[in-house]
Amino acid sequence: MSVINVGQAAVLGVVEGVTEFLPVSSTGHLKIVEGLMNIPVDDDAVVGFSAVIQVGAIAAVLVYFFKDIVRIVSAWGRGLVNKEERYHHDYKFAWWVIAATIPIVIVGLAAKPLIEGPLASLWVVAGSLIVGSGVMWAADQMGRHKRGEDDTTFKDAMLVGGSQILALLFPGFSRSGATMSTALILDLDRVAATRLSFFLGIPALTGAGIYELKDALGAGVGAAPLAVGTIVSFVVAYGSIAWLLKFVAKHSFNAFVIYRIIVGALLLGLLSAGAINS
């Protein structure tokens, strides 16, 4: 019997789609909802399921940014065979994304037992939500928002890409929150920070989903729940991406900061009262 049924998979797909690219922690929200539905958050099958349905959200990014991705990949391909093309920003940016993904892959593989064990606790999620809120608020205040997407450098990509490790080790910190905050500290504007977060997330999240697929199926999650969760996350994530880009063009991240603090405090209260298992 599957540890997650189709109905629960649909709910988790909605949660994943809404929260994957908002700086509120998709992993944290998935674990909270799993806990409320009495799904064991540290079960190997559940951890694998969460990674697999992320692929649906990543597919939404690929579709939404299809023209940009084709442009970047085409420039990369031309640069491999034409020396003059290697001075093009898109060619260099493609290599930067590849290089910036390496640290999170190494840490993800090395720290897998911790990530799926002690660090999967909802206590960690609650603390990371609150601490991450402070980081995000400070970054938004510190950043001068004066650099656009065309101004990004190799240093920017490596620092922003490396910050994904925080979210990997501390579910609740938020991958998008960590990357956007780092980009803001580097003085990128909010739209550029958000788009950079999207592009840097594509290889890491896709790789994690593919890596966990066999474990999710083998450990007790049926094909039907996986398919439903992935499809739902794709549809919902597409709308979430469109909304977020419009929102950050005109607003600060303060709404997300406040929301994270509220959710983190409520989670601490529920855990302390024993209303939800850690």
Automatic annotation (TrEMBL):
Reaction catalysis annotation: di-trans,octa-cis-undecaprenyl diphosphate + H2O = di-trans,octa-cis-undecaprenyl phosphate + phosphate + H(+)
Compartments where located: Cell membrane
TM helices/strands, residue ranges: 45-66, 93-115, 121-139, 192-211, 223-245, 257-276
Parts forming coiled coils: none
Primary location: membrane
GO molecular function annotations of the record: undecaprenyl-diphosphatase activity
Topology class, membrane: Multi-pass membrane protein
Keyword Cell membrane carried by entry: yes
Record keywords, A-Z: Antibiotic resistance, Cell membrane, Cell shape, Cell wall biogenesis/degradation, Hydrolase, Membrane, Peptidoglycan synthesis, Transmembrane, Transmembrane helix
E.C. number: 3.6.1.27
Domain of life: Bacteria
Matching InterPro entries: UppP (IPR003824)
Enzyme class, UniProt record, top EC level: hydrolase
Role this protein plays: Catalyzes the dephosphorylation of undecaprenyl diphosphate (UPP). Confers resistance to bacitracin.
Family designation: Belongs to the UppP family.
Note: Bacitracin is thought to be involved in the inhibition of peptidoglycan synthesis by sequestering undecaprenyl diphosphate, thereby reducing the pool of lipid carrier available.
Protein name: Undecaprenyl-diphosphatase
Underlying gene: uppP
